[in-house]
Design brief:
The protein is of the alpha+beta class and 329 residues long. The protein is 53% helix and 15% strand. Helix 1 crosses helix 2 and helix 10 crosses helix 11. The radius of gyration is 31 Å and the shape is elongated.
Length: 329
């Protein structure tokens, strides 16, 4: 039973014999283990090296408390195993890079896969989404294959994101102003943030991409095209795409500030005010705000004015600054 922590079957039988009494002589232990005195003595030395027994006099041995000794031994073996696995993982990565370099020399086309046709692309994206295990990074901008902004899509996106986050996936998204133009889109993204997605916003993005598990990237073949896309497999190109994502991530601003959760009580914003202040912060005009809120332009203008009065701001820019000071954005 203890072979998993480095104790052989014979040494375990000697250990059990030591446990059966307060102090045991080597000869008695040899008799209990049905072995010679010399073999039993060697087993005791191995057990002492593992911290399971200790000498207490001439030829006498006693057991260390199994609870503390075995717990310590188990922790030591676990640490050793983790070190070994880390070394294996390093070797695995080296072998993967070697294999990738060989692929690039023999068949460069295998590293980039071109997909055409809406049905084929949709099927592949669904397949990749189901296979996510560690990372899902997105540079988000239109056009979309799905009906982004529609209630059914919002519900599906929320459910999928929740499931990924519950599995410990690193879900990060960099969005641009075009990403949140569809009515209700910003509200959905804010809900995803409350679930645990890390989301940031830039005024614009040059292209869209989805990186899955840092092993494959999906990129449209042409800007604005919904007819074709490429899958980039492990290669220098994939490494470059991941570095680009990190660069845009660093430049972007969080959709919700980390301190927002501390805003409580009557001074905190309502849900509608949160959406509205983020629309102002993103640079939306009243017409675009009206589309997001699903109201008339006149109503949107009135709500913006009310928010500015509450923030004691004379301009929209001031409103954004004061909202940030209060930790709203």
């Amino acid at each position: 039973m203890l072979e998993a922590v480095g104790v052989s079957a014979f040494d375990e039988s000697v250990y059990r014999a030591v446990l059966s009494g307060p102090q045991r002589a080597v000869r008695d232990l040899a008799e209990s283990a049905e072995a010679g005195v010399a073999r039993t003595g060697h087993a005791l030395k191995r057990l002492a090296g593992l911290g399971l027994v200790r000498p207490v006099g001439r030829g006498q041995w006693e057991a260390v408390s199994p609870q503390s000794a075995l717990s310590s031994l188990l922790h030591r073996r676990r640490s050793e195993a983790e070190t070994v696995f880390a070394g294996v993982e390093t070797q695995f990565n080296d072998l993967r890079r070697l294999h990738r370099a060989g692929q690039l020399r023999s068949d460069p086309g295998a590293l980039v896969e071109v997909l055409t046709g809406r049905e084929v692309m949709t099927r592949k994206i669904e397949e990749l989404s189901r296979s996510v295990t560690t990372h899902l990074w997105t540079l988000d901008k239109p056009p979309y294959l799905e009906q982004v902004g529609q209630p059914q899509y919002n519900e599906q996106e929320t459910a999928t994101t929740r499931e990924l986050l519950e599995r410990g996936v690193d879900v990060r998204g960099v969005y641009c102003l075009e990403s949140i133009e569809s009515p209700g889109r910003l509200e959905t993204l804010l809900n995803l943030v409350t679930l645990g997605e890390r989301s940031r916003l830039l005024p614009q993005l040059p292209f869209k991409a989805r990186i899955v598990d840092r092993r494959v990237a999906v990129v449209p073949l042409a800007d604005g095209s919904q007819d074709s896309m490429v899958l980039v497999h492990p290669s220098g190109l994939l490494d470059g795409l991941m570095e680009l994502f990190e660069a845009y991530w660093e430049r972007a601003e969080p959709l919700i500030s980390e301190g927002l959760g501390a805003v409580e009580g009557p001074e905190g914003p309502t849900d509608e005010e949160l959406v509205l202040v983020r629309l102002l912060h993103a640079g939306f005009k009243d017409q675009a705000i009206a589309r997001q809120l699903g109201v008339s332009v006149r109503t949107a203008t009135r709500r913006v004015a009310s928010l500015m009065r509450r923030l004691d701001a004379g301009t929209r820019f001031q409103a954004g600054v004061k909202a940030r000071e209060r930790g709203w954005v």
